[in-house]
From TrEMBL:
InterPro entries: NA-bd_OB-fold (IPR012340), Primosome_PriB/ssb (IPR000424), ssDNA-bd (IPR011344)
Protein name: Single-stranded DNA-binding protein
Keyword DNA repair: yes
Lineage of the organism: Bacteria, Bacillati, Bacillota, Bacilli, Bacillales
Function: Plays an important role in DNA replication, recombination and repair. Binds to ssDNA and to an array of partner proteins to recruit them to their sites of action during DNA metabolism.
Organism: Vulcanibacillus modesticaldus
Superkingdom per UniProt: Bacteria
Listed GO biological process terms: DNA recombination; DNA repair; DNA replication
Amino acid sequence: MLNRVILIGRLTKDPELRYTPSGVAVATFTLAVNRNYTNQQGQREADFINIVTWRGLAENVANYVKKGRLVAVEGRIQTRNYENNDGKRVYVTEVVADNVRFLESNQNRSEFHGSPDSKNDRFDNDPFINDGSPIDISDDDLPF
């Protein structure tokens, strides 16, 4: 049997960090993951997926990831249920992450929000801007 999921998306808000009574860190956040198609109005839709991280990963996520940041999440899908204050059974499906990769730096994220005419536009610093153009490199610089 296999229960593995990989998601790439943006955080909808800052992660919430809490600690269990025994002192174990747990962080939760919601990831907005775009669908591969647009709806009839031509708008792209997204799924909002609840993510849970534990221990050191939870603390790292809480300290270094903020709303709007692009991350990759690897983990497993977990379902649980509980009885709420009204006595109704509530079912929850979430991803328990065992790996979260930060896909953009704080610097890139702040530059992305700059105006397109600004010198801080992230594309001004893109080393791959001329991707596909011939590169002048000597055979001595090649590792093989």
